[in-house]
């Protein structure tokens, strides 16, 4: 080894303290390594269906944290970790993303008041991170990301000696994390049967391996993400020309990081800010989460809004759009959301509803049932905690009932409910669009007791059994059922029950299993984008002939992933 290389290695080995600037670089490396491997993590799906999104959810969660610290110039470890974890908290998507954000949030608590950390302080902080991650899950399951985090942190902490450095600590942490990940199939039988390791644990490993590589002086290659997984920027709208008149003003949105040097954060008055905004605009949404203020306003003078708000802090994100341009496009999302924002003015009503939906037909159905805000999302399109906060802020109600309609979205909704303070938010355990649909349909919203309505809806959801029809993306052997790539599989709740070469056959057999239950006499069939009218007619005829006493309804849902979703009750 050359002399200068020996000095470099010695310097890296001897890193005794972790500071804010180094943590920022390590976090960026972790995000980059996960970004390069997100698709691999997505494929670690137990079921061979095209709905794996763990890698994308964890990637977007940590990237939200990276966006928050990009312009942060401080070596204060506590401050960097606080901003990083808060950004992840708001951007958390899916259960894996929420657990990841809680792991970082707990670690941030361990760093409070610490400008730099030695291995002992680092280990103690990570132990708090593990504890908070476990606490965030109602029923923790071993063999998942939780186990991988816990076992690796325990090992690294036990390995600390007086000679330990930050580098040796992370070497122990990442080495054991890899070993723990390899052990997950031995803990969870479903992983072993599918021949995969836990996807959330794999995502955490890539992040921490990226941390470790940066710590070792490596350049973490960012191979990027497949373009199909990233949102593409909208084409420039040129409808506003040199002779156009400004009629509708500017839609102005931003996240404001309050600064202690500019204001007393604890005493910052959001209501006073709202009064100022009312003097320069309308369609106002403003709320404070910890030290960050979210603002939305329609105004002709955005410069006044920005100048006023900069008296209290600095902008994390900022978007200003010409609503005269937006007004010319009937498909523009802002126009539809503006209607919802205007409806939130005036006295608060007793109850409001927020639901997550995927598919135009399903969205329309939920609106018809009285849903105030639809958060677009579902399988592979998990909304973030901040998406829910935005939706809550547009619902002017004392109580908000939330229907995540997906087990992988529940935790993000629950996390948002805990943050939001302007209403009592009730998150219902709806795991699919059918349970939410039945719950809302059966509720008596004239009842003044919100808790009684929640119980009524939970009882209604217990009557529902959901089934899914999906193509298989790989060969598999699950629950004693042999599955070939390209087959159509049928899933009831979380269990694959059939596999057939032909989709119509698979759909009929799945519906047959659902209606064979003597307590089920009604079947709603939500038809997805990949189904067609001829196939639907054939399926309907078969079902009506085999189950003449059942009530069967076909609904054009327009959902992705699943050509058919069955809701039996």
Task: Name the features.
Alpha-Beta Plaits, Serine Threonine Protein Phosphatase 5, Tetratricopeptide repeat, alpha+beta, 4 domains, four-stranded antiparallel beta sheet, 569 residues, six-stranded mixed beta sheet, Rossmann fold
Structure, explained:
- This protein has 569 residues and is an alpha+beta fold.
- The protein has 4 domains: 14-221, DhaL domain (Serine Threonine Protein Phosphatase 5, Tetratricopeptide repeat), CATH 1.25.40; 250-323, Alpha-Beta Plaits (2-Layer Sandwich), CATH 3.30.70; 338-461, Phosphotransferase system, mannose-type IIA component (Rossmann fold); 465-568, 2-Layer Sandwich (Hypothetical Protein Tm841, Chain: A,domain 3), CATH 3.30.1180.
- 47% of the residues lie in helices and 18% in strands.
- It has 21 helices and 18 strands.
- It has a 6-stranded mixed β-sheet with strand order 15-14-11-18-16-17, with helices on both faces. A 4-stranded antiparallel β-sheet has the order 4-5-3-6, sandwiched between helices. A 4-stranded parallel β-sheet has the order 8-7-9-10, sandwiched between helices.
- Strand 4 and strand 5 (292-299) form a beta hairpin.
- The radius of gyration is 26 Å and the shape is globular.
- 47% of the residues are buried.
């Amino acid at each position: 080894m050359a002399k200068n290389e020996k000095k470099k290695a010695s310097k890296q080995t001897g890193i005794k303290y972790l500071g804010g600037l180094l943590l920022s670089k390590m976090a960026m490396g972790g995000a980059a390594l996960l970004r390069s491997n997100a698709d691999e993590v997505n494929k670690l799906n137990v079921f061979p269906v095209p709905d794996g999104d763990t890698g994308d959810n964890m990637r977007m969660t940590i990237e939200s944290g990276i966006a928050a610290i990009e312009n942060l110039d401080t070596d204060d470890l506590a401050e960097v970790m606080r901003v990083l974890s808060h950004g992840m908290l708001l951007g958390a998507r899916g259960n894996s993303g929420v657990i990841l954000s809680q792991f970082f949030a707990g670690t941030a608590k361990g760093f409070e008041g610490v400008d730099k950390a030695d291995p002992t302080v680092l280990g103690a902080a990570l132990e708090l991170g593990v504890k908070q991650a476990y606490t965030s899950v109602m029923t923790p399951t071993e063999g998942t990301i939780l186990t991988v985090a816990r076992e690796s942190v325990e090992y690294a902490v036990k390995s600390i000696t007086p000679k330990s450095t930050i580098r040796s600590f992370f070497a122990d942490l990442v080495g054991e994390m890899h070993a723990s990940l390899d052990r997950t199939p031995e803990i969870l039988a479903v992983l072993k049967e599918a021949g995969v390791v836990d996807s959330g644990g794999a995502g955490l490993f890539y992040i921490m391996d990226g941390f470790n590589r940066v710590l070792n002086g490596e350049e973490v290659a960012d191979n990027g993400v497949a373009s199909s997984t990233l949102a593409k920027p909208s084409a420039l709208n040129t409808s506003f020309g040199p002779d156009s008149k400004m009629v509708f003003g500017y839609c102005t949105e931003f996240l404001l990081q309050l600064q202690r040097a500019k204001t007393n954060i604890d005493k910052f008055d959001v209501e006073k800010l709202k009064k100022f905004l009312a003097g320069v605009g309308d369609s106002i949404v403003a709320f404070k989460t910890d030290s960050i203020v979210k603002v939305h306003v329609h105004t002709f003078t955005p410069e006044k809004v920005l100048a006023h708000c900069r008296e209290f802090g600095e902008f994390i994100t900022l978007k200003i759009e010409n609503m005269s341009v937006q007004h010319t496009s009937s498909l523009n999302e802002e126009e539809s959301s503006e209607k919802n924002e205007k409806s939130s003015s005036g006295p608060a009503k007793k109850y409001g509803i927020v639901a997550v939906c995927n598919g135009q037909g399903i969205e329309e159905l939920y609106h018809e049932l009285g849903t105030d805000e639809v958060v677009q999302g579902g399988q592979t399109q998990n909304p973030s905690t901040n998406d829910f906060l935005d939706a809550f802020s547009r619902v002017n109600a004392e109580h908000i009932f939330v229907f995540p309609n997906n087990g992988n979205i529940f935790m993000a909704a629950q996390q948002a409910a805990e943050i939001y303070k302007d209403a009592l938010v009730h998150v219902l355990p709806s795991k699919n669009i059918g349970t939410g649909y039945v719950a809302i349909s059966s509720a008596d919203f004239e009842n003044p007791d919100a808790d009684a309505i929640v119980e009524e809806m939970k009882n209604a959801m217990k009557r529902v059994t959901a089934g899914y029809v999906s193509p298989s993306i790989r060969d598999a052997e699950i629950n004693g059922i042999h599955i070939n790539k390209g087959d159509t599989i049928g899933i009831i709740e979380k269990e694959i029950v059939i596999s057939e070469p032909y989709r119509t056959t698979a759909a009929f057999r799945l519906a047959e299993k659902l209606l064979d239950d003597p307590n089920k006499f009604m079947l709603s069939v939500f038809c997805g984008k990949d189904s067609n009218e001829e196939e639907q007619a054939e399926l309907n005829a078969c079902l009506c002939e085999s189950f003449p006493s059942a009530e069967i309804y076909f609904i054009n849902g327009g959902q992705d992933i699943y050509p058919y979703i069955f809701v039996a009750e």
